[in-house]
């Protein structure tokens, strides 16, 4: 390890998805220019760069799914395809002047806080060590694919692909294809595959609640209407409120169980009616009807998903998978089906040890963040900061995300991080750490609210939802409205943090660092 006690950068941001881009903009707005954003992929856009499976599209309307500071008025569709969202990420990088702050193809492999020098040392996939006074982890919550733990999977000789690692060199036209999983991703990929393959078999363990998708091409007229800033802002605001209600109302109403139950019950009845309009066969309809409450898992939207199962070459299998064989998949009823390709639409590791974040992080006293959370439960003040991990901020931390579009979350936690960093610099301090008391108060309050929601009280425990993690807790969510998340991340009392200075001389050298030199890409 290098012993250099002068950090190269004031801030290092890990990840150039929407989280890292939003953080870069928040830093610049706070007058902080000496920062670097590293990204393991060779393009920006995060999830929209990694997920290129057929049919990938945003399922939050595109006029809403954009940053408040750079709203885009020209979309091809109301729910734009993934590559258009990735292009939007590139546009934001260019217009917000972040291109020169990027180091692409550079992933973090370890972060370690140097207590003597008050800085973070981050090792990277290109063999470098980057030092920065402050660290912002913006790696995203749905980042690490979760392969299914099915016996024999390693011995399967056909093409095996997780949806988040799509291999476009493989032509699946006319092939026998299987999909494992029926979550929001499977919902998008299944109709696309069905259109091209000879035989499609979908292995469903748990059915998903599906609503119709009010999708349409954004013609010249609707895009023109969005060109008018008041219309654009109104659409974005009202749309965010609606998405927040669709995905999060049940959680936010945790103190009103009767009302929650009535809201969920009404939603369930409406979605069952939609399924009825799509599928005539009562047995198939029964198989596609969830047995858990709406909201236990993420619901989704599609106009094509249910009807795909009415095609003669598409089969829905609900008998549990027993194992992979060399050529296919055997189910517990003894049936063996052979496939040329198996798609695992099996989701991601969320609030999981080793995945959140996907690199070890060592704080004060050498404590490792994943170990700490494993032993003490996932926790972070406002979802952003953890005691004993000074100068570090999370964009997608535990109990940080009030369900809805992720953009308001990113803008809120990025603003929080930039505000705390700016205050530290203003005070001439080199270390900022969340105080134990406000942290514990937040965690205790959010934990209790979360446990009081329908997730734990109204039959979600058996739904295998990633909303509940391996510890039996729900740290992926904060059970408040997005308005609450927005407000408290921007207005938290600054003295909830402790600001200290151990090495004034070091601070001096960072404050006057030559940023143009610091930003020269590493060879
Ligand atoms: P997911 O919601 O976690 O769904 C994974 C699916 O795989 C589930 O149906 C699960 O069944 C099944 N599965 C997992 N392991 C299995 C096994 N061993 N055997 C059989 N089935 C297995 O993952 P996802 O569909 O990728 O969605 C993840 C998240 O990505 C969504 O919640 C959403 O937030 C996001 N997303 C967003 C968009 C967008 O447009 N914005 C699009 C797609 C996804 P069980 O339910 O029984 O576990």
UniProtKB/TrEMBL annotation:
SUPFAM superfamilies: FAD/NAD(P)-binding domain. Gene3D superfamilies: FAD/NAD(P)-binding domain (3.50.50.60). This is NAD(P)/FAD-dependent oxidoreductase.
